[in-house]
# Entry
Amino acid sequence: MTVRIASPRSQDRRVLRSRTALLDAAVRLVSERGSTSVSITDLAQAADVSRQLVYLHFGDRDALLVAAALELVRRELPLDTVRAGPPVGRPAVLAAVRHFARHGAFYRAMLTGSCAFALTSALTEVLAPVNREIVRGFAGADQDGEALDDLAIFVTGGSGAIINAWLLAGAEDPGECTDRLLRLWRGLAGKPVAR
# Structure
């Protein structure tokens, strides 16, 4: 199941305010309950909007939950600056891992709930272009576009699996997870992997 999350069509402040309230309510309720089993009624009440508005904006509950996760990533991670900037170093990776740790209860519920596959697919779609630039840095500019895209998806999926396992294990030390990811990327680049 692929969930396509469209940007709001309207720039009307009321529409944007309702949409934002729903996204925030989704993160809050899923985090508090530790589960994606949150009813549309509960989400609408927490956002102070009608149930119909949930369907109008998102279509269904899982699409709302995935949109909330994507909004959280887009709001807190500097994806555009990573794409345009120098090769990603430890500070940028650590910032990403800290984001997932800070919202650990939300992501643990999402990654084990009804929309886990849709979330993983959506995060891959958002993060693979960033990882494409990382891959270009260690694979070389002579790689063709399709190979770079495939490697970026591979790195995104593998990194996501490590972060997922780390979150589900309790997400204690963001630095430890960051170091694991960097060792993996150095290994893929054929560089010596320090222990």
Remarks:
- The mean pLDDT is 85.
- Residues 13-66 form a domain with the Arc Repressor Mutant, subunit A fold (CATH 1.10.10).
- The longest helix spans residues 116-139.
- The two ends are 39 Å apart (CA to CA).
